[in-house]
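Lecture notes, unit on protein representations.

Consider one protein chain, 52 amino acids long.
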Amino acid sequence: MDNNKNLLACNNEKCIKNKECLRYELFIKGAKEFSTNGGNAQKGCGKFVFKK
């Protein structure tokens, strides 16, 4: 089973942790459903998920 299908992607380009985040990677790879979480240039958001 692919757990990434249940994970909502994130399109937050300005998040400091986006390069480490699985949600952002899913967005870059073309996930159709996504949101913008609260990360910014100084901090990551509370919904950050480390890449495996």
